[in-house]
Specification:
Helix content is about 25%, strand content about 25%. The protein is built from 8 helices and 15 strands.
Length: about 300
């Protein structure tokens, strides 16, 4: 059995978002859908997985809210359920930049369809910026893109302030996994006085879905926030796994390193934790193995 994975977000004036939490959780549970959905005054964001019928029912329930009727989503497949549970959470922001004045409903960059993206980022008058975090860019990036190497999206405004060279070219092209971070990033750039600001509609996921691999300017895999860890061209599942110590994606080559111990360490975090931390991680990994032997799933996996 394969599972349908739906990545979604929608910015809206959603004053009554808190009251939507319980009924949304209930509908997801009734349909066997798992994942994480974030609700805030500015809309909804998240990724869910389940049967085609179950996902369809949840999406229909969300779109029945007038504020969320125009929500779009992107679909891919997973060979096994990529989430342990269903969580509907209330947040201050559905994607956290930490700049209160940014409102994507007032002003954002110009959307660029996946089929037109190559032309834009190949233009010598364009600076291409990856708005994702360092653990995401580590496994894949568009050719020639600038990598801010941020740890969190909150660092992005400061990075822009410290890089005045961004003004050296007239066009700014920005991208992220599914499009949501670019809604705020392009709104922020326009507030900072950049005129020609563009972003990839549907994000990397839409590009990998629609652009043939032989025409692609994408190198590597795209990090996704579920147990698949990464996807490649055609949205096929990638080869990466997640280090459960540091949450960094791990390649097959990383697993050959002397620094790799499943669930305990990897080359990215070998020197980052104490002996006590390692002991705790080993015990967690032991419990995961016991749960797997029973045919169950450990919630810490």
């Amino acid at each position: 059995m394969s599972y349908l994975v739906a990545a979604l977000y929608h910015f809206a004036r959603f004053a009554d978002y808190a009251s939507f939490r319980a009924p949304l959780q209930a509908v997801a549970d009734e349909n066997g859908v798992k994942g994480t959905l974030l609700l805030a005054h500015e809309g909804i964001n998240g990724t869910i997985a389940g049967s085609h019928e179950g996902i369809g029912n949840v999406l229909a329930f969300i779109r029945a809210r007038p504020e969320l009727a125009g929500m779009e989503h992107k679909e891919s497949q997973a060979s096994k359920m990529p989430f342990n549970r269903m969580k509907v959470r209330l947040k201050k922001e559905i994607v956290t930049m930490g700049v209160d004045t940014i409102d994507p409903l007032k002003s954002v960059g110009t959307y660029v369809e996946a089929k037109d993206w190559n032309d834009l980022i190949s233009d010598p008058d364009t600076i291409v910026i990856d708005t994702r975090n360092d653990y995401e860019t580590a496994i894949g990036i568009f050719r020639g893109a600038v990598d801010p190497k941020t740890k969190t999206f909150r660092e992005f405004p400061r990075w822009v302030a410290e890089n005045q060279g961004l003004h050296n070219k007239p066009k700014i092209a920005m991208y992220c996994t599914g499009g949501i971070r670019c809604e705020k990033a392009t709104a922020f750039m326009k507030e900072q006085g950049f005129d020609e600001v563009y972003h990839l509609k549907g994000g990397i996921l839409k590009y990998l879905e629609e652009v043939p691999e032989e025409e692609s300017l994408w190198d590597g895999a795209c990090f996704v926030f579920d147990e698949r860890v990464s996807v490649t061209h055609g949205l096929k599942e990638g080869e990466h796994e997640l280090c459960h110590a540091c949450r960094h994606p791990v390649t097959p080559e990383d697993k050959l390193s002397a620094d790799y111990e499943e669930g305990v360490s990897c080359p990215h975090c070998a020197d980052s934790y104490s002996a006590a931390d390692r002991a705790r991680f080993r015990e967690r990994q032991h419990q995961i193995a016991l749960a797997k032997a029973r045919g169950a799933r450990h919630l810490g996996a």
